[in-house]
Specification:
Helix content is about 40%, strand content about 0%. By secondary structure, it is mostly helical. Helix 1 (about 5-15) packs across helix 2 (about 25-40).
Length: about 120
């Protein structure tokens, strides 16, 4: 899929969630969501981080929080937003510390002769 097509799909979804956003704000927010997807941030979200991510998107899209009406308000405000991010910051977002996500499990080498490959009988111990 072309990146322009992905942005348009996300932009259309955000337009439903943020009906008061400008066309430019929706495009910025869609590009931000695509970048976060490439960063795999969804793998490490919890309640406060979800809240912070939504607030970041509102800022990027230039939508005042008072204009946002969550589909499930009883679950939207269950916890305060995080005081940090695990995703990249973009222009328009409040500055917060970046906490790196835990490193992924090391990938196994596809090279059977690699001395670090657990399948290699001669591997380093």
């Amino acid at each position: 899929m072309r990146s322009e097509d992905a942005v348009e799909i996300v932009r259309a979804s955000l337009a439903l969630a943020f009906p008061t956003a400008t066309a430019e704000g929706l495009t910025r927010a869609a590009e931000t969501v695509i970048r976060w997807g490439a960063e795999d941030v969804a793998d490490h979200l919890n309640g406060p981080l979800v809240q912070q991510m939504l607030e970041d998107l509102l800022e990027v899209a230039d939508v005042p929080p008072r204009d946002f009406r969550p589909a499930e308000p009883e679950t939207y405000y269950t916890s305060p937003p995080a005081r940090y991010r695990t995703w990249s910051r973009t222009e328009g977002m409040t500055r917060l510390p970046l906490l790196p996500r835990p490193p992924d499990e090391p990938l196994r080498s596809h090279n059977p002769d690699n001395p670090d490959n657990p399948d290699n009988p001669n591997r380093r111990r």
